[in-house]
Fold this protein.
Amino acid sequence: MATPTVETVECDILIIGGGMSGCGAAFESKFWGSDLKVVIAEKAVIERSGATGEGLSAINCYMGQRYGWNTPEDFVNYVVNDMMGLAREDLVYDVGRHVDSSVHLLEEWGLPVWKKDDGTYERIGRWQIPIHGESIKPVTAEPARKAVGQENIYERVSITHLLADANDPNRIAGAVGFGVREDKLYVFKARAVIITSGGASNVFRPRSVNEGIGRTWYSVFATGSAYGLMIPVGTEMTQMEHRFVPTRFKDGYGPVGMWFQYFHARVTNALGEDYTVTRDEELDKYPPYGRAVPTPTPLRNHQMFLDIQAGLGPMYMRTEEAMQKLAEGDPEKMNKVREEAWEDFLDMTIAQALTWASQNIEPEVTPSEVNLAEPYIMGSHSGEAGAWVSGPEDLSPPEYFWGYNKMTTIRGLFAAGDGVGAAPHKFSSGSFTEGRLAAKAAVNFLRDNGDTPTVNDEQVRQFHQAIWAPLETFDKHKGASTAEDINPNYINPSQALVRLQKIMDEYAGGASAWYTTNGPTLERGIALIEMLREDLTHLAARNRHELLRCWEVVHRTWVGEAHMRHLLHRQETRWPGYYYRADYPSLDDANWRVFVNSTYDAANNRWNLRTRPFLNVVTNI
Amino acid sequence: MPTFVNPNACNACAGEHLGPLCVYICPNDLMALDTDANKGFNQEPQLCSECYACVKLCPQEAIEVRGYSDFIPLGASVQPRRVEGGLTWTVTFRNGKVLEFTYPSRSTPVGSSDPYRNFTEDPVDDLKGQGLAGESLWLGVHTLPTIQGSK
């Protein structure tokens, strides 16, 4: 085992993660602060890193203000209803009012947007525009790379811990990490930090259990580090109980939005029934959100889930019906629809195209199974987990404002994308936008605050020791067994991941538990996850690749524990179709239309949970 | 569905200054170089999301994908080839049927972006306002919306 060298990087702004939000933050920060040293730390390479690395077939957050399609107010109305009444209206509005500029810039840089004959954007749904988006990530990364400069992009560097100021635990001072491809430890000393790293896939046991564990719906590279970094330093988190359960094409997890909204396909059960028709009255149980248009995503899940529970599966997306209808018997029209249907997958979820080809599914002939996936905890799509951040000064009431837009409760620590809670439905374009907003605010913060925080060198030394420990643990104990994977002194990262996923699935309402849990079950799950967290100090890694996996499972475990503690705190079932509290089966607006927030107190290993008020800033919902 | 490398086609990107390009680009640190064989390989197939980043970048077209053993029957393939401004996909079904599709992916030459071209905002005077860089040019409406009397 090699002894690592230590590299110290001093900068004004450290951006952790080079996905859509990180690239937005990089681009924006250097416009307002061309004199500032801005650094990106990224565990992969920014051209293909993050959730959009594989490509996208649509921009799902676009107002079309210039066409008069939507106002930001319309967007807030939609989002608050879709979230069953709980989203930060100031944050959602802020994304909505700015997001068009991001989309237009991406197009200027080279993203091909589908156009109508008159040159206006084609539309899929109210907020969605189709793109030829296979290269959305390299197109986005290029100006970010140019903005901060090649020498300031630290790729293949995994960030493991944030650093607080030696004299003020509520002031950020930087971060530590390690080189994925070099025997190297890093300390980044920064005057401001922007967390743009990912939400969490693979916290719950997925429906596939072997090779298919990599075919997660949300990016398998998204390991919850946005939360795993912020929680341990005491950042106030919000809505960590929230999750997204996507309805997707079965196993390949191909997207369904285009099928529902653009091709107007139905899903039918074994009897040929459409659950949106047969389960319509179910919506009356969840006023006022049940009758919102469109029906909130969790309630559509819930309607389908009732069919599945009743033994009425398999559920089929009637692709053949929709395509034949659109083609109207015209082979030319059918060719166009077929090309569009396959592009939807080939641009962003290639596994689904292979799933179809391998099962001889021609969508114009054969319908395709859909299913509810395992839960995901994230903040950029239909999930709203993340940090509790300040809103913008012109919109936010005092309860939601503390000086700088997108700043967390830790001074100088900003968040964007999956890192920001209670601000869902921003998707790729909105995450890029939120990165820009956080970066501009961070420049403002630096102009107003000239202080340079002090890094605690002893703490850095301890973190560095902890980072490298799994390699040492393996070396020290490998002689105790003839088998590297069976050793009483350690667990390897894939074993830890499986343990986490089993706990979450069985105790926190995973797919095999039919998304159902209750208080006593959660308490038992929390007891088991506390032991897992202790065992994570006995992780072993044979090489740097496994060391990366070790720190990923540490971050995912923080997410799992926070999720369970928040689930336990919220005594209602607000999002049927995402999860069910069997002991509190109803939605309870009178008591629980509030945000559930938490802070972790590292000194006492204690979680503090509380609620924060929901305030109407834009809507009257 | 894990990637696999055709040993007869892989030359470990001889002469490429970034090293083997599959190793360079893999977002999940999966593609590695077998230094004995001097060939690329997927070191952790169960965490491969078949994002195809390596497949698209391989100059030798040496990387393919074998569908996830959990749920994909054998015999099909989906293979891209980069063409001017986009990709051509060959989709081969288990029953031998072949479809081919070509889609654009970028409308400008690689490297041509100019981050702040023609932006009119002033980095000092406009710092305190709500507008983002370039929005006077790119927002699409004249005035950034706000909520009257929201505070």
